[in-house]
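> forwarded from #structure-qc
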């Protein structure tokens, strides 16, 4: 299994965390890692045969926006290029609301029509990964010019603040700083991102905690959980069961925990 990461062009850094390529082609069936609930969105471009989820074959290029645990079917050949967008930023590239993107797999053609078809042709005919990424970046910069949201409330700053400050319940403080009532904040947040701010904060906190544990290869979870805002051990155990279906010890000791979609900063 080979993983390669690429930084986006500086103009896209505010919106995209990274491009990355997964390649697994040794012929033996490989159990793909579970994808836990997340706060961002990815677009997957399959460079070989698309993988399947619940035995349903996905499109050649599609969104991937899990808000609950998702299992990709085991496969003997996986090869894809992914764009990992930062939380909430995909709204600057299209007019489709997040409530239609969460937990769905929309094809790029569903989103951008003929423009996506032309992009796919460029990707298919490009010789190497660098050329494919350059074609995608040029396409996204054009979409950014067309669709970038002009908002009276700085939702990008709000999302960034919530994602980076998972240690405490900052929801009411955040709405106050934005100059809007908490009720209006909840309503506006839900309409833009398809989930409540409370659920977003819960997912972000769990994601931050489990990422730290997986990258450090440790099952000694309690101090990390407390550091990231869980009240006590039982609180983290309850949340872990909600998001993984297992206790922290059960999840962190499984073989699949060694393979995951969390990466160190680039």
């Amino acid at each position: 299994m080979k993983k390669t990461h690429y930084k986006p062009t500086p103009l896209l850094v505010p919106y995209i965390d990274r491009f990355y390529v997964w390649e697994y082609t040794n012929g033996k069936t490989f159990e793909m890692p579970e994808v836990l609930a997340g706060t961002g969105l990815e677009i997957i471009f399959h460079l070989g045969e698309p993988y399947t989820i619940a035995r349903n074959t996905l499109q050649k290029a599609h969104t991937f926006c899990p808000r609950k645990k998702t299992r990709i079917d085991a496969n003997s050949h996986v090869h894809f290029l992914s764009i990992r967008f930062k939380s909430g930023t995909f709204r600057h590239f299209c007019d489709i609301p997040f409530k239609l993107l969460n937990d769905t797999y929309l094809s790029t053609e569903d989103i951008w029509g003929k423009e996506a078809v032309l992009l796919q042709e460029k990707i298919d005919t490009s010789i190497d990964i660098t050329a494919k990424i350059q074609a995608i970046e040029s396409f996204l910069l054009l979409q950014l010019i067309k669709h970038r949201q002009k908002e009276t409330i700085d939702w990008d700053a709000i999302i960034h603040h919530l994602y980076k400050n998972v240690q405490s319940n900052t929801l009411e403080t955040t709405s106050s700083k934005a100059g809007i009532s908490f009720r209006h904040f909840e309503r506006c947040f839900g309409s833009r991102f398809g989930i409540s701010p409370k659920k977003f904060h819960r997912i972000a906190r769990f994601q931050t905690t489990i990422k730290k544990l997986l990258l450090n290869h440790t099952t000694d979870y309690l101090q990390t959980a407390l550091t990231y805002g869980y009240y006590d051990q039982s609180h983290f155990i309850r949340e872990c069961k909600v998001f993984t279906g297992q206790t922290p010890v059960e999840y962190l000791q499984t073989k699949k925990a060694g393979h995951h979609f969390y990466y160190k900063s680039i």
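QC bot note: Residues 87 and 110 are 21 Å apart (CA to CA). The chain has two domains: 2-147, 155-258.
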